[in-house]
Amino acid sequence: MRVVKVDFDGTERSGDADATSLDDLQPLVMVTWRDAYFDFDQQGAEDPRSDYLVHTVGFLLSETPKFISLAQEILPDGDGYRAVTHIPRSIVESIVRLAPEDLDLEAPEV
Question: What's the pTM value of the predicted model, to 2 decimals?
Answer without folding.
Answer: 0.65
